[in-house]
């Protein structure tokens, strides 16, 4: 009975009630028996319904357990393999004995091996000698702690070259949780080290440059000190030589007179050399003073003739002032005199012993005054033209002995003119003479 459903029981009960109602009619034959049968059927149907409901209530509802299941597509292994293989970072997989089980293309390319040469080899085969001990320590740390991060190791390529790298590793376990190896990422630090090296070189160069500047400053101070100290004894030498040559202390023989004059002339040359050294050092250190004032150009040229005429005596040089302007100019008159002095002295040294001629001129040219010093001397050799305005350009022993000069004069001229906002240049033809030009803004 317990196998009937509640609906079946309900139908039997209804059917029993109908039979019972029919049995209520006493005029029908067997009415009492029919009534009894209907009651039994209705009771049976009710029992079936009751039992069915009880069974349903006693049965607990089904339990649904949601299990997390990994759904891995067929493409996942390929995707992860590509990430490993194509990573720009050097990747290798090693077991607990340090044997390389796998590596990517970046690793193979950097180390210069084929993959067949790498797999099955010890990771220590790819470690530079200087980092072997450090790599052993790092390997033991990894096995104990399960992780290493950014450890600096020097590695060795197939060709023997080495490079610095940072390694980071994590563990690989089997299904039972047993450690079986690690994945290691290596970042090549060569470019960073190279950059640090360049910065280090620049820093060393900066320090060396500062030291050289200090040495140069010390050298300049020394030159200035020596030059000034040398000027002190020159003055009395010139003074007493002049006194002797004037016969103030008695007459001199011809030979004695020549000796005294030579003393005076050489003392004067030494004095000029000391002045030149001081001027060069002042120009180099930007300490030369310039005092600009307004003056007439023709007055400057007349002063130049007056201060330089004495140079013409020994060679009987023709000295001509061809200035054609009386315009005024605002500049440093004293420094311009120095420029003319050096240029004219230079010309005197190179004109012939007879028939020498030096011409000086000044004329307007736009917003400037163009000055020039022309001679009919030996001219400047083609191979010397590029060095004319450099220090010591005349300091070729044979050249210096023949023509004299310290080699500072033209350097001083260039420095003065450029500080006054002008420029200087020359034209020269070997054997025909030289013309030095310089322009100064009005």
Which structural category do the helix and sheet elements fall into? alpha+beta
Reported for the largest beta sheet, the result is:
5 strands, antiparallel
User: Ends: how far apart?
Assistant: 136 Å
Note the run of SSEs as H and E: HHHEEHHHEEEHHEHEEHEEHHEE
> What would CATH call the homologous superfamily of the largest domain?
Histidine kinase-like ATPase, C-terminal domain
How many structural domains does the protein architecture include? 4
Which class of the largest domain in CATH terms?
Alpha Beta
Main sheet strand line-up: 2-1-5-4-3
Give a structural overview.
The structure is a single chain. The chain has 442 residues and is an alpha+beta fold. The chain folds into four domains: 6-58; 76-188, Beta-Lactamase, CATH 3.30.450.20; 197-281; 289-441, 2-Layer Sandwich (Heat Shock Protein 90). The protein has helices spanning 6-23, 31-58, 76-86, 105-111, 115-118, 132-145, 190-245, 254-284, 297-308, 333-350, 397-403, 409-419; strands spanning 90-95, 100-103, 147-156, 162-173, 179-188, 293-296, 318-321, 328-331, 357-365, 368-375, 423-429, 433-441. The strands form three sheets. The protein has a five-stranded antiparallel beta sheet, with helices on both faces. A hairpin with a 5-residue loop joins strand 4 (162-173) and strand 5. The radius of gyration is 57 Å and the shape is elongated.
């Amino acid at each position: 009975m317990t196998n009937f459903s509640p609906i079946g029981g309900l139908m039997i009960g209804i059917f029993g009630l109908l039979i019972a109602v029919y049995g209520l009619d006493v005029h029908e034959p067997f009415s009492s028996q029919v009534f009894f049968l209907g009651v039994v059927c209705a009771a049976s149907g009710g029992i079936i319904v009751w039992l069915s409901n009880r069974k349903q209530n006693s049965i607990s509802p089904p339990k649904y357990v949601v299990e997390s299941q990994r759904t891995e597509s067929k493409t996942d292994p390929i995707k992860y393999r590509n990430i490993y293989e194509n990573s720009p970072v050097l990747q290798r997989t090693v077991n607990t004995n340090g044997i390389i089980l796998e590596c990517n293309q970046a690793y193979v390319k950097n180390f210069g091996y084929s993959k067949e040469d790498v797999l099955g080899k010890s990771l220590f085969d790819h470690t530079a000698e200087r980092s072997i001990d450090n790599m052993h320590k790092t390997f033991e740390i990894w096995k104990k702690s399960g992780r290493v991060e950014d450890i600096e190791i020097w590695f060795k390529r197939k060709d023997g070259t080495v490079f610095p790298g940072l390694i980071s590793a994590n563990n690989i376990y089997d299904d039972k949780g047993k450690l079986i190896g690690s994945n290691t990422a290596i970042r090549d630090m060569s470019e960073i080290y190279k950059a640090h090296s360049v910065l280090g070189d620049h820093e060393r160069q900066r320090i060396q440059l500062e030291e050289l500047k200090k040495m140069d400053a010390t050298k300049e101070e020394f030159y200035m000190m020596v030059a000034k100290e040398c000027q002190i004894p020159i003055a009395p030498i010139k003074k007493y030589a002049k006194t002797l040559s004037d016969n103030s202390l008695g007459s001199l023989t011809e030979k004695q007179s020549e000796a005294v004059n030579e003393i005076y002339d050489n003392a004067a040359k030494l004095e000029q050399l000391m002045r030149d050294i001081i001027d060069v050092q002042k120009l180099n250190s930007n300490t030369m003073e310039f005092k600009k004032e307004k003056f007439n150009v023709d007055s400057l040229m007349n002063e130049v003739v007056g201060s330089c005429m004495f140079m013409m005596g020994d060679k009987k040089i023709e000295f001509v002032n061809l200035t054609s302007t009386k315009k005024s100019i605002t500049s440093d008159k004293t420094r311009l005199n120095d420029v003319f002095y050096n240029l004219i002295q230079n010309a005197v040294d190179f004109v012939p012993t007879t028939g020498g001629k030096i011409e000086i001129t000044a004329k307007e040219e736009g917003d400037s005054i163009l000055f020039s010093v022309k001679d009919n001397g030996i001219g400047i050799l083609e191979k010397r033209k590029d060095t004319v305005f450099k220090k010591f350009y005349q300091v070729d022993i044979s050249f210096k002995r023949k023509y004299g000069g310290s080699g500072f004069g033209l350097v001083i001229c260039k420095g003065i003119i450029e500080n006054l906002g002008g420029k200087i240049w020359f034209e020269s033809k070997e054997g025909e003479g030289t013309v030095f030009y310089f322009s100064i803004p009005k």
